[in-house]
Amino acid sequence: MANNKYINKVCSNTQSDLIEITHDKLENILIKYLKEYRKTIEWMTPLGLFLSFLLTCLFADFKDFLGISKEIWSAIMYILMALSLFWTLYTICVALYFFKRTSIEYLINKIRND
């Protein structure tokens, strides 16, 4: 092969690591990984709610409804918007905390027991 005029060098990278693990241990690692992964994407729901309440507060014309005055409806929307903002900030902090634990390298190292 070295005599071929179109090939300068042949590199071989065929060695591989073998990982042996029991079914129950792998299942426990994957369950923990999925719980941590879910925490990194939970911020989307409160953000969507916050944006909905924000747009409602900005563009809605509140009216008296169900015996509740328009000022009360407006106050309810502002309170819900504030609560969803705090929820969004909390879930973003949690997502940032678990961010490194949800990488593929982290998962492989947990499976390899490194």
Please render the helix and strand layout as text.
Layout: H1 23-41, H2 44-59, H3 70-98, H4 104-112
What does this entry show, briefly?
With 114 residues, the chain is mostly helical. The chain contains four helices and no strands. It has helices at residues 23-41, 44-59, 70-98, 104-112.
Key words describing this protein structure:
114 residues, mainly alpha, 4 helices, 64% helix
Folded structure, characterized:
This protein is mainly alpha-helical and 114 residues long. It is 64% helix and 0% strand. It contains 4 helices and no strands. Helix 1 crosses helix 3 (70-98) and helix 2 packs antiparallel against helix 3. The mean pLDDT is 88.
- Specify the structural class: mainly alpha
Poorly predicted runs: none
Sheet with most strands: none
Fraction in helix:
55-70%
End-to-end C-alpha gap: 39 Å
